[in-house]
Each structure stands twice: as structure tokens, then as C-alpha cells.
């Protein structure tokens, strides 16, 4: 029996469609909804589990994304999609900003909850990387006094 290559095994778990459509991953999944794939053979010491969309990017563009410190972002927002045309390398910050999460929505805000503008003069960032409004801080200090 002839063994399949890693690339053949990978693409056998993908429901391919037209170039502009999502190509859903039909193999194993993580708890967070991303596809999971075992890279390497059973006897290979470097065998590892990788996210399917990262493997798709690596197979299409020929380099490992983990080594360059960038994330592979789904432009289509579909976690199971492995269509290389729907994937883009971005920084972690950009990937978080684009996400449909609390972090993403906070990063896009240009004003605090009281309407003060987040600009250079009115904003400071704490040790955890969170933005704070200086005008609101002054108001809280005034009320404490």
C-alpha cells in the first residue's frame, strides 16, 4: 500500500470549491473551532499538531509562519476555511483588531465611554497595555478629593 504525502493527506480533508469560496476543513477540530492536522509521519520525530489554516498557508506559499512571528488571519472570518486565498499574514495586534471580540472592538474605539477623544494628549497606556482616558482620570481624582 502506497503512503500519502503530507500534502495529499492534508488536501484529502478539505472540501474544495471555487477559488473565491471558503474551503471547509473536514478533519479534526480544536475546541475553539479551528481545524487540526498532524504534520509528519508516525515514525517522524518532528511530528507535530498544527492548525489547518496555518498548514494550508505553508503548503501554498512554501514557508513556515511560526518562525516569522506573524499570525495567519482568515479574511472570510470562517475558522474552518483553509482556502489560501482567504488567508493573510498579519501581526498579532492586527489579527486581534480585526477579530469580532471585545479586544477588537476596544482597539477600534476612538473615544472613552464618556466621550473624550483617545488622542496622544488624552491617552495613557498601563502596564497591561490597556488605554485610559486622562480626562476621566482627572475627574475621578477630583471627586475623591
Describe the protein in words:
- The chain has 2 domains: 96 residues, Homing Intron 3 (I-Ppo) Encoded Endonuclease, Chain A; 37 residues, no CATH class.
- A two-stranded antiparallel sheet has the order 1-2.
- The chain is built from 5 helices and 6 strands.
- The protein is α+β, with helices and mostly antiparallel strands and 145 residues long.
- Helix 3 packs across helix 4.
- It is 28% helix and 15% strand.
- Strand 1 and strand 2 form a beta hairpin.
- It is elongated.
- The mean pLDDT is 86.
- The longest helix is centred in the C-terminal third of the chain and has 11 residues.
Keywords:
single chain, 145 residues, alpha+beta, Homing Intron 3 (I-Ppo) Encoded Endonuclease, Chain A, 2 domains, two-stranded antiparallel sheet, 6 strands, elongated
Amino acid at each position: 500500500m502506497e503512503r500519502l504525502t503530507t500534502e495529499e493527506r492534508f488536501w484529502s480533508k478539505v472540501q474544495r470549491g471555487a477559488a473565491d469560496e471558503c474551503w471547509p476543513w473536514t478533519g479534526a477540530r480544536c475546541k475553539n473551532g479551528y481545524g487540526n492536522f498532524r504534520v509528519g509521519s508516525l515514525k517522524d520525530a518532528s511530528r507535530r499538531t498544527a492548525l489547518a489554516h496555518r498548514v494550508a498557508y505553508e503548503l501554498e506559499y512554501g514557508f513556515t509562519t511560526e518562525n516569522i512571528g506573524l499570525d495567519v488571519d482568515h479574511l472570510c472570518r470562517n475558522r474552518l476555511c483553509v482556502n489560501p486565498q482567504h488567508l493573510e499574514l498579519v501581526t498579532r495586534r492586527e489579527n486581534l483588531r480585526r477579530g469580532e471580540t471585545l479586544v477588537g472592538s476596544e482597539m477600534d474605539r476612538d473615544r472613552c465611554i464618556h466621550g473624550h477623544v483617545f488622542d496622544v494628549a488624552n491617552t495613557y497606556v498601563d502596564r497591561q497595555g490597556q488605554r485610559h482616558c486622562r480626562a476621566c482620570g482627572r475627574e475621578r481624582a477630583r471627586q475623591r478629593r
